[in-house]
Amino acid sequence: MISFINADLELDRQPILTDINLTIDRGELVYIVGKSGSGKSTLLKALYMDIKPRRGEVSIAGYSSSTTKRRHIAHLRRKLGIVFQDFRLLHDRSVYDNLAFVLKVTNTRQSLIRDSVMQALEEVGLAHAARQMPLNLSGGEQQRVAIARALVREPVAILADEPTGNLDPDTSLEILEYLKKINQKGIVVVIATHDYELVRHHPARTLQISGDTIRETTFSNSPAGYRPLP
């Protein structure tokens, strides 16, 4: 489903991660943890091909960084749901229209749009807010709209970049519960976060970025927090 093979990643010509080798299988929920600025977002950018590796290969959902043409990247992104820390909703459109817009630009039949939008909003408990404007909602509700927007195209994977970074602890746990429910439908969910407490409360497979490398880790209740697997 997802693989990095001997991949070197850089951003603005600055080396970020070196010789990355990892595989994420269909149906997995995976945390990418590390300090702010460690390269978590860079890793996700490589997955939705906002950047390509300087060396090696990144592949997701049948698309490879070494063979995918620029004109085909939009087709890949239609198979992915991407959730950002700052929501990135259209403030001049209602909640319903934020989701409907995603389907309209991919030429979804009008007869299917309403049912798809309302189903996605139902999954995050916001069907009642369909006609609200985003700025009238709380931060947690706006992030749930962003998750619904990611879900509305029935993606094979959701990539969440610090999805709880602007939220209080209780709301963060609520957002994580929605992402876990989506994962239980068989959708891959990759969550980049520096919130170790969140991961401690809801453990799953965890990959930690340290320096320019990434490796499997296990959570420890010791003050050190995480320790790499041998």
UniProtKB/TrEMBL annotation:
Domain of life: Bacteria
Name of the featured protein: ATP-binding cassette domain-containing protein
Pfam families: ABC_tran
ABC transporter domain segment(s): 2-227
Lineage: Bacteria, Pseudomonadati, Chlorobiota, Chlorobiia, Chlorobiales
SMART domains according to UniProt: AAA
SUPFAM superfamilies per UniProt: P-loop containing nucleoside triphosphate hydrolases
Keyword line: ATP-binding, Nucleotide-binding
Organism: Prosthecochloris ethylica
GO molecular function, one term: ATP binding
